[in-house]
Amino acid sequence: MQSTRDNAVTEWFDGPLGSRVLREETSLARVALDDVFGFELLQVGIWGPTRHLLDGARTQHTTLLAPAMGPGVSLCAPLASMPFASDSIDAILLPHTLELAEDPYAVLREAERVLVAEGCLMIYGFNPFSGWGARRLFARHFRRPAFPPQTRRMLSETRLRDWMALLDFEVADVYGYLGTLPMTRRPKKLADGSVRQTEYRPRRALAAGAYLLKARKRVQTLTLVRPRRRASRLVLVPAAEAATKSGTNQVGSTKNGP
Predict the structure, then answer these.
(1) How far apart are CA 108 and CA 114, in angstroms?
(2) How far apart are CA 96 and CA 128, in angstroms?
(3) CA dihedral defined by 97, 60, 25, 93, rounded to 10 degrees?
(4) Is 117 a residue whose pLDDT tops 90?
(5) Is the pTM for the entire model greater than 0.85?
(6) pLDDT tens figures, 54-112
(7) What phi, psi does 179 have (nearest 5°)?
């Protein structure tokens, strides 16, 4: 059964629609990764063949983590319990991982844990309010295979922004890509026969079929609060009462002679 699903996924990515998705996402990854530096870039989850989204990485090292072994996988582990120390990864890429995961928010919490301060988080997602979302609803209504293959859900940009705020991320850019309708489109070619590279600019994903959200982990600064100085207590000593009784001898008094 598992091999049948894998074959269906492979056929979709080899087809015209899946090929278009991979082509645009690979080009967009090079743009998004252009200012991402550091030692480690971690891709969480498999999407498409091998490690095509990591080709434009400018970090010193890249790792592909997945719950099961597959092409290009470096490490096999649960996505909601990554085998990394807290604050140890410079950048994380989630290529439609949240749409395939059983508990997407748990994966996001784990990503926040392992990211360093000011670390970069990049999330690919399909827009549920586009033709791609309508195509998915159509497939569910008529009990067809999931569209795109193996996806459990589609998360809107608005919902992701809410989750980012809860986890103390700051959204830096959002790139919309793909057309609003799930249609194949031949890549534009130049005079020399090479494929023309699409120019991607940050924009809201409402008018696009998919989006790439790029966020930074905020740094929580600690404010030193000095303890208040306790005011020294004043000890009040009552004054000695003056002697008022008659017949009381005063110091230095002398007795009269007879």
Answers:
(1) 10
(2) 13
(3) 20
(4) yes
(5) no
(6) 998 999 999 999 999 888 899 999 999 999 999 999 999 999 999 999 999 999 999 99
(7) -75, 165
What whole-number distance in Å separates Cα of residue 21 and Cα of residue 96?
A: 12
Q: Which CATH superfamily is domain 2-217 in?
A: Vaccinia Virus protein VP39 (3.40.50.150)
Is the bond preceding residue 148 a cis peptide, omega within 30 degrees? yes
Provide the residue count of the chain. 258
**DSSP characters for the chain?**
-HHHHHHHHHHHHHSHHHHHHHHHHHHHHHHHGGG--SSEEEEES--SSTTGGGTT--SSEEEEEESS--TT--EE--TTS-SS-TT-EEEEEEESHHHHSSSHHHHHHHHHHHEEEEEEEEEEEE-TTSHHHHHHHHHHHTTPPPSSTT------HHHHHHHHHHTTEEEEEEEEES-SS----PPPB-TTSPBPPPP--B--GGGSSEEEEEEEEPP-PPPP-PPPPPPPPP-PPPPPPPP-STTPPPTT--PPP-
Confidence of residue 251 (pLDDT cuts 50, 70, 90): very low
225 pLDDT higher than 70? no
Rounded to the nearest 10 degrees, the angle between the axes of helix 2-14 and helix 16-32 is: 80
180-219: per-residue pLDDT in tens? 888 776 655 545 444 445 566 656 666 799 999 999 999 8
